[in-house]
Structure to design on (366 residues):
């Protein structure tokens, strides 16, 4: 039997092939304002455009968790700074990381996975520069759900997952970290479940609804869709059980050295985070024009109705600062689970210099 870290490496190789062979690695441009740029944008890194502005390519997923990215573009923050930002949406986080480490993308906006650490250890580096989203008490962003068949068979709690099939995107994904943390509280580990890699969230959702797997962790909007349709049952909201700095902004090796452009990008992103936290995440006034404007922008990128987006929001650090200690804990978890080998210094992976420079220019926000 292959070790977990070997499985993760094999999946990383597969993801590399997908990016190299398809250009966009499973990209879905529907709803992206720069969709016309297509694959050409995916192969262009921070170069001057014909209008004299600087072009920056960003890889992310078409989920509400990328709201600050969508708002920075939709509100014109990057344009005001002379940046021409192309947002490329992918269905799998691993594809984004591979493309960013290879300088095919300038910026990655996705989750922390074992493959991120493994790539760094193998010399394929991307630098964590800012927070993008946290699993946080009081929000319902990630749901651990059971299929109807498993629920009827008695799978109602985390402890009931022992020996069951757990749907996952890839070995060493953020879902492994979240489930593993919840299992530990029950005296169990990932070794007590059967991990079934399915690559994308739509595949996870379909597998749960068809009963091909017994359980999975679904992010919004897939979580509410599955639960509201009666095709899955809630075991637990992950946010109520785990606290984690799960989503980050990372720079490619090349873009990391382009200090002026990297700082401008972060300046626009930080402005968007301030707007998001004040006017969207913490806003209880549904008639606020700023909230409605933001929801319309987010809806364009996610194909979600503005009326349901507010139930899918995720907490972002108000100053976009990462929690280095928590990221270190995630690394230790993946190492103990066998998904990551080798000595890795998390502090070398994190570089908030562009964020600190942006904070000086933008201020604390309100």
């Amino acid at each position: 039997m292959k070790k977990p870290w070997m499985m993760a490496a094999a999946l990383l190789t597969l993801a590399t092939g997908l990016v190299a062979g398809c250009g966009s690695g499973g990209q879905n441009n529907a709803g992206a304002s720069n969709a016309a740029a297509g694959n050409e944008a995916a192969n262009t890194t921070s170069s001057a455009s014909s209008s004299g502005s600087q072009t920056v390519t960003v890889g992310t997923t078409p989920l509400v968790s990328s709201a600050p990215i969508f708002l920075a573009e939709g509100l014109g923050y990057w344009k005001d700074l002379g940046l021409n930002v192309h947002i490329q949406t992918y269905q799998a986080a691993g594809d984004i990381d591979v493309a960013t480490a290879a300088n095919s993308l300038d910026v990655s906006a996705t989750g922390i996975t074992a493959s991120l650490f493994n790539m760094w250890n193998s010399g394929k580096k991307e630098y964590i520069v800012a927070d993008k989203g946290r699993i946080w008490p009081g929000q319902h962003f990630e749901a651990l759900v059971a299929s109807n068949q498993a629920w009827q068979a008695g799978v109602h709690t985390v402890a009931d997952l022992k020996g069951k099939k757990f749907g996952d995107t890839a070995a060493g994904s953020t879902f492994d970290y979240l489930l593993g943390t919840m299992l530990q509280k029950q005296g169990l580990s990932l070794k007590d479940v059967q991990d079934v890699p399915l690559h994308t969230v739509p595949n996870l959702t379909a597998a749960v609804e068809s009963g091909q797997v017994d359980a999975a962790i679904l992010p919004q909007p897939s979580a509410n869709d599955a639960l509201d349709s009666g095709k899955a049952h809630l075991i637990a909201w992950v946010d109520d059980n785990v606290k984690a700095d799960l989503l980050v902004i990372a720079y490619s090796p090349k873009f990391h050295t382009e200090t002026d452009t990297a700082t401008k990008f972060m300046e626009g992103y930080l402005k968007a985070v301030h707007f998001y936290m004040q006017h969207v995440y913490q806003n209880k006034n549904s008639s606020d024009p700023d909230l409605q404007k933001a929801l319309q922008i987010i809806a364009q990128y996610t194909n979600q109705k503005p009326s349901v987006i507010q139930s899918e929001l995720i907490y972002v650090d108000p100053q976009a600062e990462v929690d280095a200690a928590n990221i270190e804990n995630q690394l230790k978890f993946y190492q103990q689970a066998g998904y990551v080998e080798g000595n890795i210094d998390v502090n070398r992976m994190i570089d908030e210099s562009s964020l600190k420079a942006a904070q000086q220019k933008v201020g604390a926000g309100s």
Notes: The first helix runs from residue 4 to 22. Confidence is low (pLDDT under 50) at residues 1-47. Strands lie at 54-60, 83-89, 107-111, 127-135, 142-147, 165-168, 194-197, 215-219, 232-237, 244-251.
